[in-house]
Specification:
Helix content: 25-40%
Strand order of the largest sheet: 4-3-2-5-6-7
Radius of gyration: 23 Å
Strand content: 15-25%
Number of helices: 14
Shape: elongated
Oligomer: single chain
Order of helices and strands: EHEHEEHHEHEHHEHEEHEHHEHEHEH
Length: 441
C-alpha cells in the first residue's frame, strides 16, 4: 500500500487555571471586567407555565441583566420567547441602555402553546446572531435558555443546539425549572462542560438562588482567567483538570476509514472538543490518532509526543480529505492492537522532545467512530484489544442507523461504551458523555 497523507486531529488545546469563577461583587462593572458580550435570553413561553411563574421568570432575567453594564459599546441584550414557534421580543441592536432593556423585558406576555425549543435555537442562530441585527463578530455570544419541560422533539433540539454551538464564540447555557425537565436534554443542548453550563432548580421561585451563579459563569466565558497555554482565539473550553491525575490515561482517536471530507472534518472537531476536556500532559493524559494508512509506522500525533511539541504541530495542521483507497475497520483495530499503544524509543518524525516512557498502569482508551457495518474480523480484533494483556477500553460512536448492529455493539466494551447519533452533525451532542466515559468522576 502506498504511503498516504496521515489522518490529522484537532486544532487547539486551552489550559486554564483552576479557579471556578469571579468573585460576586453585586456590580456588573466590577464583576465582569472590560470585555463586552452579546447576550440573548431564550424564554419558554409554553402553556405549562402559569402567569405567576412567567412573571418570576421575567423578574429573574431582569435581575441578571441588572448586574451588567448595557450600552452600544458594552454588553448588548436580545430576547426571544418560544412556544409553538419562536417569537422575537427585541434584537441586540434595539436598546442602548439598561432602563430600555428592562422596560422591554417587563412588557413581555406569555404565548402559551407547546415547547418547540428547536425553533428558538434555530432562530437565534439564523436571525439574532447576525450583524444586521446587532451581533458583533469580535465579542463572545452568550445564549441563555430557560425551560420548564421536555421539548417537542429532543432529537431536533439537540441538532439545532449543535448547529448553534458550531458558530464561533457561542456559549450556550441551559436552565431547567421544575420536575419535568430532562437533564440529558439540557446537557445535550448546552455547551460543555455541563457542570459549567447546565443549571436545574426545583421551581421558578428558586431561580433567585442561581442568579449570581449564572452571572459569574457568564463573566467567566466573556472575561476568562489567564491561559497558561493557548494556541488560537477560538472559544473557551474548560479543561477537566482531574482527568489523568489519579491514573495516567492513553487515548487513541480513530475516525471511520470511509468518512468523506465533511465527515472527516466533523470527526476532527468532535475529537478536538473531547480532548479539550482532558488534562493533556506526560504524566496525565496522552492522545494519539490512527492514521489513514494503517501501514504507517507511527500515528500522525503520537502518545509519546510532548505537549509543547503537540501544540506546535497542531497549529500547522489542517484536516485532509479521505484517501480514495480506504482501510477497513478491522485494519484500524489491528493498528490499535499492534502499533497505537506501543511505546517507542524515538519520537515520531517532525516531533521535538518526546515524553518519557509510559508507566505500565496507564489506562488505555480507544475512541472509534463507525458509520458502516463491521465484519467478523473487526469483532475479533476488538476482542483481542479488550482482552487480558492489552485491556483497551473500547468506546464506539455509531453514526447512522445502518452501522448499528450486533457486530458493532460487540466492538464496544459494554453498552455504556456505545453511543449513537443519526448524523455527523450531531456528534457535538456527545462530547460531554464521551469525555465522562474516558475519565469518569
Amino acid at each position: 500500500m502506498s504511503t498516504k497523507r496521515l489522518f490529522l486531529l484537532f486544532a487547539q488545546f486551552i489550559f486554564l487555571h483552576s479557579n471556578d469563577g469571579f468573585p460576586n461583587t453585586g456590580s456588573g462593572e466590577s464583576l465582569c471586567g472590560s470585555r463586552p458580550a452579546d447576550v440573548v435570553f431564550v424564554l419558554d413561553s409554553s402553556g405549562s407555565i402559569s402567569n405567576g411563574n412567567f412573571n418570576r421568570q421575567i423578574r429573574f432575567v431582569t435581575d441578571v441583566v441588572d448586574q451588567f453594564p448595557i450600552g452600544r459599546s458594552s454588553n448588548r441584550i436580545g430576547m426571544v420567547s418560544f412556544s409553538n414557534w419562536a417569537q422575537l421580543e427585541f434584537h441586540l441592536k434595539d436598546y442602548e441602555n439598561k432602563a430600555q432593556v428592562e422596560a422591554a423585558i417587563g412588557e413581555m406576555v406569555p404565548m402559551n402553546g407547546d415547547t418547540n425549543t428547536a425553533s428558538a435555537l434555530a432562530y437565534v442562530r439564523d436571525v439574532m446572531l447576525t450583524s444586521e441585527n446587532g451581533a458583533r463578530p469580535e465579542v463572545p455570544h452568550v445564549v441563555v435558555v430557560l425551560t420548564d419541560g421536555r421539548s417537542n422533539d429532543p432529537r431536533k433540539t439537540a441538532l439545532e443546539a449543535a448547529r448553534l454551538k458550531q458558530r464561533r464564540d457561542v456559549h450556550l447555557f441551559a436552565i431547567g425549572v421544575g420536575a419535568e425537565v430532562d437533564r440529558l436534554e439540557l446537557t445535550n443542548m448546552a455547551s460543555t462542560p455541563s457542570d459549567q453550563y447546565v443549571f436545574t432548580v426545583l421551581n421558578y421561585a428558586a431561580l433567585e438562588t442561581i442568579k449570581d451563579l449564572l452571572t459569574n459563569k457568564t463573566c467567566r466565558v466573556t472575561n476568562p482567567p489567564k491561559f497558561t497555554i493557548t494556541t488560537t482565539s477560538d472559544p473557551l473550553v474548560q479543561v477537566d483538570q482531574a482527568c489523568g491525575s489519579r491514573r495516567p490515561v492513553d487515548v487513541l482517536f480513530a475516525a471511520s476509514p470511509f468518512a468523506d471530507h465533511n465527515a472527516t472534518r466533523a470527526s476532527l472537531t468532535f475529537f478536538r472538543d473531547v480532548a479539550s476536556r482532558l488534562n493533556i500532559g506526560p504524566d496525565a493524559v496522552r492522545v494519539g490518532v490512527v492514521p489513514r494508512d494503517c501501514d504507517a509506522v507511527v500515528p500522525a500525533i503520537s502518545l509519546r509526543e510532548a505537549p509543547e511539541s503537540l501544540l506546535r504541530r497542531l497549529k500547522r495542521q489542517h484536516p485532509q480529505s479521505a484517501a480514495a483507497e480506504t482501510t477497513a475497520v478491522a485494519s484500524v483495530l489491528r493498528y490499535i492492537n499492534d502499533v497505537g499503544f506501543v511505546d517507542r524509543q524515538r519520537s515520531p518524525a517532525g516531533a521535538a522532545a518526546a515524553a518519557p516512557p509510559r508507566a505500565n498502569n496507564a489506562k488505555r482508551v480507544a475512541l472509534m467512530i463507525v458509520d458502516s457495518a463491521v465484519d467478523r474480523t473487526a469483532v475479533d480484533e476488538a476482542i483481542r484489544a479488550k482482552g487480558e494483556g492489552k485491556d483497551v477500553e473500547m468506546l464506539v460512536v455509531v453514526v447512522g442507523k445502518d452501522a448499528l448492529d450486533e457486530r458493532t455493539k460487540a466492538v464496544a466494551t459494554s453498552a455504556e461504551h456505545l453511543f449513537h447519533v443519526s448524523s455527523y452533525d450531531e456528534l457535538s451532542s456527545l462530547v460531554d458523555k464521551v469525555s465522562s466515559s474516558i475519565c469518569p468522576a
